[in-house]
Design a protein that fits this description.
With 479 residues, the protein is mainly α. The chain contains 14 helices and eight strands.
Length: 479
């Protein structure tokens, strides 16, 4: 009923399933940890309780997302020993120490200060608590550093020596391994993606509450901060993605060929295919819709630059074009949608309508999960585009798997699917429930000040509230 090929496919599906679940939570917690640090810093600087309220609101959500990320990561790592023992044996001397550095630096840093961050606001001084929040935020970024370093080495392996048993052994310099050719580009692109993912979640939550009550100052602040991120960082991310694409063309050209749908070589300028249906059997792109020579202009900055196609790559070394082609377009399409929402918010801000345009709020609400879809699509593009190798050009995926029977892999895969959807489904439901609650700590239409609660149902404060409250309300109205 099953054979070795089935076991390999099932092992790949299992790892893809678990890593996709895992990737969602770090992509959120990396950005959210930094957002919490910004909120607490603004509270300490301005003394406004609004920032403290938002900090406490998002801290609960961060705690759950962080916990689910840790649990899913532990489960995923065990598969290196169960399903991918050959890969672990051959690449372990290089990959193992890098992953250990992630635990010894990032995870220990996060774990050491997480308790203070979560439970110490009323037990330690403000500055010490802020320092703990900063350490957690820095720890999440250091974690991303090491994990991307490991993965980048698998894409662009350098600094190794081949041992007598076919093992990859570290060469003269670990820094050559850590800073592999693709690492800087992939790290920047991934971290920015995490920040944008968080920004659009925060923006969606702010939009949700603005649709219910446009006078909610906490929702206004959340939405305003998120839309600044969308407007300013989305263009940077598009540029970062372009530079990573140029680096990929240099080191993994067949991945670019699959992303672009270039089955054929183009000696006098390659088109940019917007849409099409990859036909891997016939090695062509059916129903292609493209812009002549634009791919050469983007990738080589020359309209007439020649571009090699998959017809120059042996069939056994070609990645699955259909998956890579469409996942890349999903990622890019969402990226430009993010840019569009950011520009829309700028137009609303200029016209002082940031909190009044209901359709902008609805669009932000729809775009809330877009960052998660984009990072998963980007991961699929990167990892499937590396196939058929685990260590690019050196170790094939078919030669990396453990000698397991397919029924054993199928059983563990079924168990993972059931447990993951049950456990993480409940966790996600609880996070959404927390998000649906008002970020305002008091009753609806009331905001807190140092002098006590101030009614804001009509936004404009009364004479008894003083000029300070009036100026704050005016500032909130202007965005």
């Amino acid at each position: 009923m099953f054979d070795g090929a089935d076991a390999l496919i099932l092992a790949r599906i299992q790892f893809a399933f678990t890593v996709s679940f895992h990737f969602i939570f770090p992509a959120f917690s990396i950005g959210l940890a930094s957002y919490l640090a910004v909120l607490e810093g603004l509270w300490l600087k301005t003394g406004k309780d609004l920032y403290k309220d938002l900090f406490k609101y998002w801290l609960k959500i961060f705690a759950i997302a962080f916990a689910m990320g840790v649990v899913s990561g532990i489960v995923m790592s065990y598969q290196f020993g169960t399903n991918w023992a050959v890969f672990s044996d051959k690449a372990g001397p290089v990959v193992g120490p890098l992953m250990a550095y992630e635990v010894l630096t990032a995870f220990f840093l996060e774990a050491g200060f997480l308790g203070v961050m979560l439970f110490g606001m009323n037990r330690v001084g403000r500055k010490l608590h802020f320092a703990a929040t900063l350490m957690v935020a820095i720890g999440t970024c250091i974690s991303a550093f090491w994990i991307i370093s490991v993965n980048s080495w698998m894409h662009t392996p350098v600094g190794y020596e081949m041992g007598p048993n076919g093992q990859f052994l570290p060469g003269d310099s670990w820094w050559t391994i850590v800073f592999s050719p693709s690492f800087p580009y992939r790290l920047v692109h991934t971290v920015i993606a995490a920040y944008l993912t968080t920004a659009f979640v925060v923006g969606a939550v702010g939009a949700w509450h603005l649709l219910k009550d446009r006078t909610n100052l906490h929702a206004r602040k959340m939405f305003s901060m998120a839309m600044w991120m969308a407007a300013l960082v989305a263009p940077v991310q598009i540029f970062a993605g372009d530079t990573q694409g140029l680096n990929t063309l240099e080191h993994q050209p067949q991945k670019i060929m699959a992303m672009e749908g270039h089955y054929e070589s183009h000696p006098d300028g390659a088109p940019l295919y917007l849409f099409g249906i990859p036909n891997e059997k016939e090695q062509r792109l059916d129903y292609a819709v493209g812009i002549p020579k634009l791919s050469s202009l983007i990738l080589k900055h020359d309209l007439n630059a020649p571009m090699a196609g998959l017809d120059t790559i042996p069939d056994a070394d070609q990645p699955p074009v259909t998956i890579v082609f469409w996942s890349f377009r999903i990622m890019v399409g969402i990226g430009f949608a993010m840019l569009g929402l950011g520009l829309w918010s700028l137009a609303a801000r200029v016209r002082k309508k940031l909190y009044d345009w209901g359709w902008l709020h609805r669009a932000a609400l729809v775009m809330g999960p877009s960052g998660f879809v984009a990072v998963i699509a980007g991961w699929v593009t990167t990892e499937v585009g590396r196939q058929p190798f685990t260590v690019y050009g050196l170790l094939r995926t078919a030669d990396s798997a453990s000698p397991l029977a397919a029924p054993a892999v199928a059983t563990s895969l079924a168990a993972f699917v059931l447990v993951y959807f049950a456990v993480f489904g409940v966790g996600t439901w609880y996070i959404l429930r927390l998000m649906s609650g008002s970020p305002h700590p008091g009753e609806k239409g009331v905001r807190r000040t140092e002098k006590g609660p101030v009614r804001t149902a009509g936004i404009t404060p009364g004479p008894a509230q003083g000029e300070g409250a009036k100026n704050e309300a005016e500032a909130e109205r202007a965005g």
